[in-house]
Amino acid sequence: QLRTPPARGTGRAMLSLRLRLPNGPSTVQVGEDATFAALRAAIAAVAASPAEALTLSSGFPPAPLVLNDSDPIRGTLRNMDTVVVAVGASSGQAVAPAGKAKPKPKSAKKAAAASSGAAAVRTLSDIDSPAPPSAGKRRAPPASSGRGGGGGGKKRAAAALQLSSEDGIGSSLLDAVSGRGGDDPAAAFLKAASQSALAHHVAEVTATERYHAALGGHFEIEVLESRRLDGEPTEAVATYKVGRKTKREPFGLLALPELRGVVLAVLEQLQTDQSSASVELLKPFKMAHVSPRVFWNMVHHHGGDVAAGPRAPP
């Protein structure tokens, strides 16, 4: 990956661009005022190919970039945009002839429609961030007063989550699971979401294993020696097999009156809110997922018949 630092002393803004190369994703940084020729040269260094052999496309669906070598890329590309790079024997890049202006839309209506289509794409950061500046205009940086007060210095703008296209989502998800996301907020968001989904899936699989072990009678419950002041045991361990592996799950014991009190509390909640959520909690599989402690106590007091607990009289 090629990262071009800003020139010392100039303080110019940089654009970070995602690259979809034939051999995998990468990134490149160029100055906000860089020309199309400078962009092609920077990408050529990353792709290890001559600049004239590159065809650059952007947008969704990707369309070839039509620019003069001396044209600035500002207004055509924005920070964290995706650039699709094709490498061939000859460029095939539709470059506008030197000395001629870029082609303009055939009508003002088409230009307005294209602008509104681009503006319709919303990212997660748009909720808290102001609207981006219009193409071709640079936002003036906030003036620093230089006076005291503890708040001096510029605040770093929050990076946008670019999830506006299938290509962008796929690239961010690949970076998230491979650990190459770095400071990319989109990769961090997708990584957190995938971790949460994985944890939920593992919890459901474990609940299914508990449920099948109880139904099949393939379990043992060992009551430990710890006792309360009234002599009742307080701890137990459930042991059950999953394939060739044996799982052990310690849980706190509930006396039978306490267990019945839990069931009655759920039933009272059902009568109050008239929703099906409380009934779902009393189903054996949901109980094994939501509260393993109540599930194993049902198994312990009713000999594996977990459905007998809710049916038992108070």
Question: Explain this structure to me?
Answer:
The chain has 9 helices and 9 strands. The strands form 2 sheets. It has a 6-stranded mixed sheet, with helices on both faces. A 3-stranded antiparallel sheet has the order 7-8-9. The longest helix is centred in the middle third of the chain and has 32 residues, at 185-216. The chain is 37% helix and 17% strand.
Task: State the shape.
Answer: elongated
Based on secondary structure, the structural category is alpha+beta
In N-to-C order, the SSE pattern is EEEHEEEHHHEEEHHHHH
Give the fraction of residues assigned to helices: 25-40%
Fraction in beta strands: 15-25%
Low-confidence stretches: 1-9, 97-101, 144-151
Would you summarize the structure shown here?
This protein is an alpha+beta fold. It has nine helices and nine strands.
Secondary-structure map:
Elements: E1 2-3, E2 14-21, E3 24-31, H1 36-47, E4 54-58, E5 63-64, E6 82-87, H2 108-119, H3 166-178, H4 185-216, E7 219-223, E8 235-242, E9 245-252, H5 256-273, H6 277-282, H7 284-290, H8 292-302, H9 308-311
Name the descriptors.
single chain; 314 residues; alpha+beta; 6-stranded mixed sheet; 3-stranded antiparallel sheet; 9 helices; 9 strands; 37% helix; elongated; disordered N terminus
